[in-house]
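Table S2 (text version). Query chain:
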Amino acid sequence: MKKINFRPIIAISTFAVIVILFASCSGGQQEQADQHEDHDQTELTVYGGNITFSDENLQKAFQHYIHLKDALVNSDAEEARSVSEMLAQSLESLEGSAELVSHAELISNTDDLDIQREAFYPLSDGFTELIKNTPPESGQVYIKNCPMAFDNEGAYWLAAESEINNPYFGDAMLRCGSVTGVIE
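Corresponding C-alpha cell output:
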C-alpha cells in the first residue's frame, strides 16, 4: 500500500490561508481608510451653500439649522440630536432667540425622531422670522411647506436649495412639499 505524504498539501494549504487572511486584513484597512476619508469629507461640508449673512453668529446658526434639516431628511435621529446641540449654542448668541434655543434643546435631548420633527416645526417658524428680519447678504433661502405634515395641518421649513427634501417625513414622502417663498 502506498503512503501519501501530506506535508506538501498542508504547507500549500497553510500558505493559501495566510494569503487569504492577509488579503482580507489589508482590505479591511482600506475600507477603514475609505470610511475615514468619507468622514473627513462630511466634516468639511458647508451647510447652507453660498448663502452668507452679515452676522457671523446668524451664519453659524443657519449652517447648523440646514445641517439639522438634512439630518431629519435622512431620518438620522442621532445626527439631529448632535447638531441641534450646536444649533442651540449658536442661537444663544442671537438676541431674541430664547424660544428657538428651547426647541433646539428639545431636539438635542431625545433620540425619538417623531419628537425631533415636532420640535423642528416651531423652530423653523421662528427661524424663518429671524431670517426675514436679517436677510442674507448673498444667496437665497427657500421657504418650503409640506401640507400633509402633522395630520394635514402642514409645516414649513427653510432650505438652501429649491429641490424638495422633506424633513418631516424623510424617505416616506421625501418630495412632498413646495416652495412657498424666497428670502433674499
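Notes on Table S2: Helices lie at 7-44, 56-73, 77-92, 98-108, 113-133, 149-152. The radius of gyration is 25 Å.
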